[in-house]
Amino acid sequence: MAEELKIEDCINEVCPWSGKPVRADSLMRYRGETIGFCNSGCRDKFLKASAMFDVLISQDE
Length: 61
Description:
Helices cover 34% and strands 13% of the residues. It is built from one helix and two strands, in the order ββα. It has one helix at residues 40-60, and strands at 27-30, 33-36. A two-stranded antiparallel sheet has the order 1-2. Strand 1 and strand 2 (33-36) form a beta hairpin.
């Protein structure tokens, strides 16, 4: 069963892509923290971009 994410655990109040307020239905875990987005599209865009950078960073370690 997937972990239930709660908006009160979110480390940000506004979406990093749009600057709009985060919504409870658009949260994710990243590097151990709950981060929020204004919609699932922004969340998915972040997930794709961060995955690319995580791969590049791990190659340098």
